[in-house]
Design brief:
The protein is an alpha+beta fold and 213 residues long. The chain has one domain (13-211). It contains 5 helices and 11 strands; from the N terminus they run ββαββαβαβββααβββ.
Length: 213
């Protein structure tokens, strides 16, 4: 029996590969209202809503369970992002949580405290008065507790991240495997798709941060 499949390339796309599933779509009016009401999008943001895309995708959490995550990214990198997370899924890279920053009131601190993997948030870069790459939808923070931001002075703001100051794998726990260090497959996957890693910055170290030029 022949089966026919219709793919809409103008407005959204979806893929089932093994048990990995993703879906890309424009920002709906309901989602736009949610983002504005909860502080992740506001007047003066450097990117318009029509240039952003809402992504849902499957990931493996710290317990090995398959979960459905969500994030918002710039339309120019949406395809690369779903391919990155497909490859992370295939190598068994664990992700603690993946939810929109708007569910945390647009508060980056609260999102990090929840060890939340996220992307778009219209905010300034840490310690600056200019927009972060997150404000363009061109940056992803992944497992931020296990991959902390470390200031030039060596300060780590989130207490749960203190034990991850030393960047060395010591066991095979989910938290240990979530930690990204040089030579890891997860790092090489991001780099393959043109992302720059904050863990290789010269002054501060932002191990959770991957951005696209």
């Amino acid at each position: 029996m022949k089966k026919s499949f219709i793919f809409s390339l103008l407005y959204s796309c979806s893929l089932i590969a093994s048990d990995y599933i993703y879906h890309i779509s424009p920002i709906s009016q309901n989602l736009k209202r949610h983002m504005i009401q909860n502080g992740s999008y506001h007047k003066g943001c450097p990117v318009s809503i029509d240039k952003l895309r809402y992504i849902t995708l499957t990931y493996k959490d710290f317990y090995g369970d398959i979960k459905k995550g969500e994030m918002i990214v710039h339309k120019d990198i949406a395809s690369n992002v779903v391919n990155i997370f497909k490859e992370l899924y295939e190598i068994g890279y664990p992700i603690h949580r993946m939810s929109l920053v708007s569910h945390f009131g647009g508060n980056d601190w609260k999102s990090i405290e929840a060890d939340n993997t996220s992307a778009f948030n219209c905010r300034n870069a840490t310690g600056t008065n200019h927009f972060s790459k997150h404000a363009y939808g061109k940056a992803i923070d992944i497992n931020p507790i296990e991959n902390p931001y470390i200031s030039k002075s060596g300060h780590i703001s989130h207490k749960a991240s203190l034990k991850f100051r030393v960047r060395k794998h010591i066991d095979n726990s989910p938290q240990d495997r979530a930690m990204i260090i040089k030579g890891d497959k997860a790092l090489e996957i991001f780099k393959k798709y043109g992302f720059i890693w904050g863990g290789e910055w010269k002054s501060v170290k932002d191990y959770q941060h991957f951005s696209h030029p």
